[in-house]
From TrEMBL, chain A:
It is found in: Cell membrane. GO terms for molecular function: cytochrome-c oxidase activity; heme binding; metal ion binding. This is Cytochrome c oxidase subunit 1. Cytochrome c oxidase is the component of the respiratory chain that catalyzes the reduction of oxygen to water. Subunits 1-3 form the functional core of the enzyme complex. CO I is the catalytic subunit of the enzyme. Electrons originating in cytochrome c are transferred via the copper A center of subunit 2 and heme A of subunit 1 to the bimetallic center formed by heme A3 and copper B. Pathway: Energy metabolism; oxidative phosphorylation. Keywords: Cell membrane, Copper, Electron transport, Heme, Iron, Membrane, Metal-binding, Respiratory chain, Translocase, Transmembrane, Transmembrane helix, Transport. Residues 9-522 form the Cytochrome oxidase subunit I profile domain.
TrEMBL record, chain B:
Residues 132-250 form the Cytochrome oxidase subunit II copper A binding domain. CDD domains: CuRO_CcO_Caa3_II. It catalyses: 4 Fe(II)-[cytochrome c] + O2 + 8 H(+)(in) = 4 Fe(III)-[cytochrome c] + 2 H2O + 4 H(+)(out). Binds a copper A center. Keywords: Copper, Electron transport, Heme, Iron, Membrane, Metal-binding, Respiratory chain, Translocase, Transmembrane, Transmembrane helix, Transport. GO terms for cellular component: plasma membrane. It is a multi-pass membrane protein. PANTHER family: CYTOCHROME C OXIDASE SUBUNIT 2 (PTHR22888:SF10), CYTOCHROME C OXIDASE, SUBUNIT II (PTHR22888). GO terms for biological process: ATP synthesis coupled electron transport. It comes from Viridibacillus arenosi FSL R5-213. Coiled coil: none annotated. The lineage of its organism: Bacteria, Bacillati, Bacillota, Bacilli, Bacillales. Its cofactor is Cu cation. The keyword Heme applies. This is Cytochrome c oxidase subunit 2.
TrEMBL record, chain C:
It is a multi-pass membrane protein. This is Cytochrome c oxidase subunit III. It comes from Viridibacillus arenosi FSL R5-213. Keywords: Cell membrane, Membrane, Transmembrane, Transmembrane helix. Belongs to the cytochrome c oxidase subunit 3 family. GO terms for molecular function: cytochrome-c oxidase activity. One of its GO terms (cellular component) is plasma membrane. GO terms for biological process: aerobic electron transport chain.
From TrEMBL, chain D:
Keywords: Cell membrane, Membrane, Transmembrane, Transmembrane helix. One of its GO terms (cellular component) is plasma membrane. It comes from Viridibacillus arvi. It is found in: Cell membrane. This is Cytochrome B6. It comes from the Bacteria.
Amino acid sequence: MSSTAKKKGFGATIWDYLTTVDHKKIAILYLIAGTFFFVVGGIEAMLIRIQLAKPDNDFVSAGLFNEIITMHGTTMIFLAAMPLLFAFMNAAVPLQIGARDVAFPFLNSLGFWLFLFGGIFLNLSWFLGGAPDAGWTSYASLSLASPGHGIDFYALGLQISGAGTLIAGINFLVTIINMRAPGMTYMRMPLFTWTTFVASALILFAFPPLTVGLFFMIFDRMFDANFFDHINGGNTVIWEHLFWIFGHPEVYILVLPAFGLFSEIFATFARKRLFGYSSMVFATILIGFLGFMVWAHHMFTVGLGPTANAIFAVATMAIAVPTGMKVFNWLLTIWGGNIKVTTPMLYALGFIPSFVAGGVTGVMQASAPLDYQLHDSYFIVAHFHYVIVGGIVLALFASAHYYWPLMFNQMLNETLGKITFVFFFVGFHCTFFVQHFLGLMGMPRRVFTFMGGQGWDQFNLISTVGAFLMAIGVILLVVNVIITAIKNEPAGRDPWKDGRTLEWAIPQPVPYYNFKQTPLVRGLDTFWIEKMEGNKEGMTYAEPISDIHMPNNSFIPFMISLGLFVAAFGALYHQDADKTWSIPVLIIGLAITFASMITRSLKDDLGYHIHKEELMNEKGGKH
Amino acid sequence: MMKGLKKWRLFGLLAALTIFLSGCGEEYLSTLTPAGQVGKDQYNLLLLSTAIMTFVIIVVVIIYVLAIVKFRRKKVGENTIPKQVEGSHTLEIIWTAIPIVLLLILAVPTVSLTYKFADTKAMEAKDADGNAKAVTVNVTAKLYWWEFEYPEQGIVTSQELVVPTGQKVYFNLKAADVKHSFWIPAIGGKMDTNVDNINKFYLTFDKESDGLKDGVFYGKCAELCGPSHALMDFKVKTLSQDNFDNWVDNMQATKGKTADKKSTDLGEQVFANSCISCHAVSGEGTGGGVAPNLAAFGDRNRVAGFLEHSEDGIKDWIKNSQELKPGNIMPEEKALNNGKEFTDEELDALAAYLMGLSVEK
Amino acid sequence: MDLNKKFTPQSWPAHPENSTLEGKNKTLGFWIFLGGETVLFATLFATFLALKNKGPAGMEFSTQSLFELPLAFIMTMLLLTSSLTSVYAMYHMKNYNFKAMQAWLIVTVLLGLGFLGLEIYEFYHYVHLGFTFTQSAFGSSFYTLVGTHGLHVILGLAWFILLMLRNSKRGLNLYNAPKYYLASLYWHFIDVVWVFIFTVVYLMGVLG
Amino acid sequence: MSHDVEARTRSKHEYEYARKRANQGMRNQVTVFAIMIFLTFIAFAAVQAGMSAYLVAPLILLFAAVQVALQLYYFMHWSEKGHGMAQFFMYSAAFIAFTMILAFVTIIWW
Ligand code: HEA
Ligand code: HEA
Ligand code: CUA
Ligand SMILES: [Cu+2]
């Protein structure tokens, strides 16, 4: 879609993307892969809703239903929401801080390919004997008892893609700490950069427990270990702890970048500086910190005892305070502003009441004795879809419109965008609002069917209808993308006219080396400052034009990931006595990975330079 | 379009309120119609928290609507640059302090109820004769059925919990195979049944279940436990103390009951040949059965927790138990009868025999 | 960066690991990675503490019956010393003394191999007694915790060896200096973890 | 990127001073090493001596913490400047590690 693509042959473009280490192209890769998985997860959601549209439905069987919900949850969280956020982080953060690229371009690409191969591996389970069926939480007693290889696909697939996520997280941390342009102090960083920073720190600390938990699961299922086997002294609750020590921060890993994106959008379209910037930063950090202290609120009914429950209940409630600070700061940002309701802004405005509604039900669940009633009922399903869809998905859709011109130099159609919003938003509330009541009326979650006459029939039907409205919304968005791509009208620089942060200062299409000269940052919303001072270029430079050092493209990340992908099949099938090929496959896979790593290590890969003279002649982003 | 939006919002709120007030949901199943102290406490907590949350939402929505109405570009003017405000400490303090107060209001009952519900000391209390004062039920959750053992009374039943009203009933909960969760929505919040340990909690039952639609409260399994998790229902019959004592006596009286292979009753004969190895027909004894105890089967409300309780239902179950409840442990028909299907005659007799297994005359 | 640029001890930067942007990024990134590793090991420790001495009914293995202090002590000494020798190696790296650096690294590797040998011997011994990975939850958690540490030792050694071989002809430059520095940080981190292993697993295990 | 290589040749005087500092530093490292060996020795001896676990356990945990601090501040150069971020992440990790372990050994278990 970029202008460079057209000049090259198709094969060359593919090769370019397979080997790219450019954050802007990796962003596009994340966007494509994430969207693909979002549609897969969305189709799974539709299957769930169709099955539950009426009582005693037999659209899908009981076992299949469990596979669908498990894959829906897992796909949406790990393979759709996170990668889509990574897409925008990659697209915007280096530009927002005025960097040439991320700190480790090679690792950036490795992170992507690990995620993609892990995701593909997980989804291949559908075709290789059945998907995982123990819920996205994969609680140990059930997941150990689950026959077939579904759970093995889950554990190995998440292990691979989790490694990719961890790498991406570390990369963003270093990028943000070390690669900021001169003048870009911490307290001048755009909020999306800040939230990316905190979310990455959460990734750093939350993924290792998941990694360990998944290894335990793999060892127990494939190598006869006894971590969760209570007969041999194991304890299933260890899994629950490890999963939630990861799982709770995970939801903030998702929602914090979404908050950041909305902060950018509010400020831009209210034409006003973000209200209470420093308290926003503070709240972000506080949420990140508290996120690690509350995991047991998912385990109130496990029987940890009243002291544990009470402590975790109160700690959980505390998170409402910093989140509230954010909500009110957003409100005060638009208050007194000059609000233009563009499509991104429409999503942002839709977000506030939706997210607050989801957040306050979270606080209700935090009240442990009340959660005894709510836990594992549809109330929970309602809560988390309100925060996830009303928070993260709306942020993703908003940013798709907001950052489309930055990524592709094209504008998505605004009218169609607003129509998309209406379908999706109305459908969303219609689907999930009634689920609160289903839960209170005694409907447990994860049920593949329900008996008629228990008072649940109407609401389930309403919920299904809403899901269809959402699907129409998603399809309209896809249509919008296609129309825009065909029209192919360049959007140019600062297409929203009200851009405030550095990424809007860069010329379009963005040159592959980003800023020709490193910008000098003169305050918060530096582009806005320059514009207000009448600087046509929108930037002050920190250095004269000089040689730019660029990293080389590399195919090695792809190979490293491919090796692990192959090896995972070997590990998975080694339990089956009849699959004698499994050990050789395991060894071959690991050999590919290690050989690729050693190749990387033995070569001196120093990159190349774009010379000053070339830069002087350059007009725009073609190369 | 924003107008449409707002209307939708208002409509949502109103709808919510009406639904709430009408006390929606079924009496035997809904947490909104609590029939026991635990459930009532939780319901009150629900009301309190809902009130707080509604307040929060209203405040947010008011500011939000005003902001959108007042500061649209159409109103403010295309080229106006608003004042770039940095923030406000006063406001900052207000919106930190007020939520903290609201949360404290919620935290106090939260903590106190947490401890209250966890208080199971009375389980151990004994009267002068060394008998436990309180009624205790040992619940074992199994794929996909429930076993209820009354250790003090020396009886065991399944699928249908029978309890006295007007007192605390204590539960020891555990799972035999994978994790499940024990939930009677209309009575009170749930507790997981783990494989590694025994959980204890109590519930109180204020209302006799006689007057309810099916004459029972509905109980649910609330933890994903396999394909038939959705069908792992149980029922709760609440009786007055006298009726409960009666029931216990009747159950105890089934002591030693068994099915006779030489019986003149064809149903009993078949049962003795094919079923008794797993299903007991005496309600006296301890838990740990591989299959539900059927001593009181005739008094049940459902077959296997969810099928219609009738001879047809039983026959359906025997013929198709695997399709009806995927993954359950009861063997297929042919496996029960030496590789043959039961004849219609045998099935009828079996069903009649099973319906006759009753302790409530 | 010009790999052929020749340095003298005098022109060699005082902090070669941090004197290029790549070097700065790598050092910081590695520290952050170590933060993640800390949590990873914490998870393993927590699990070990929860499952310590837990096994099938009637299991005769316990930390007190299994562990012997003299072996753990020798292992500790080897690893601690190797930590010091790698400090020496970095000292010479900063002095631009490639030969001395490589020599000290060889000593480090040898000490590390000694540690690894003893660990393998220890595991072999336990397995011989019937205390295996699959025997009990205690076994699973013990071997996973200590084994993960052992795996780190192997990786650390492989890293050192690869670096030494790869650069034996190239000598020191600003491209590989950060790599040496990181490998040595990794080695210290392994030692840090071991300090907790010998304290929490062995010493407190023997205490009961 | 290459242009920010710090490529300044130090003056002879500077260089010699730095060498001296480094030597001094290395001597410190050896002292630190001696302390670590000493702490290890005491820890093992205290356990071997069979003293009360209530006394010994906190003691050896303290020793472990001191040893680790020595590793980090001396062997891993935290005492030199420019390690703020490293410390920040490691301390955060330690804090989370501590919470997790505390939870696993106390209120969370039956
Ligand atoms: C993006 C995802 C996301 C987010 C942001 C949240 C946010 C919160 N969540 Fe949620 N949660 C999930 C995703 C998320 N959650 C998921 C996926 C599950 C289920 C997992 C599973 O079991 O499968 C879950 C489950 C879950 C549970 C467990 C329920 C159970 O299974 O029994 C609990 C219990 O405490 C909880 C609480 C909270 C709280 C207190 C917040 C808070 O952060 C919310 C804070 C926000 C506000 C409160 C609104 C704004 C604040 C104000 C306007 C200020 C004033 C407010 C007050 C005074 C109240 N969540
Ligand atoms: C990021 C996370 C995320 C997102 C975005 C969603 C989105 C949706 N979810 Fe999901 N959900 C979870 C995370 C998420 N969910 C999790 C973690 C669980 C718990 C799983 C578990 O219990 O283990 C869960 C469980 C869950 C349940 C409960 C299942 C149960 O307990 O039995 C339900 C039921 O209604 C549901 C519905 C939906 C719906 C209707 C959407 C909709 O918003 C989806 C909207 C998207 C679409 C509708 C896509 C439409 C696309 C097409 C139709 C194809 C068009 C194709 C082309 C044009 C090429 N979800
Ligand atoms: Cu048993 Cu769900
Ligand atoms: Cu949570």
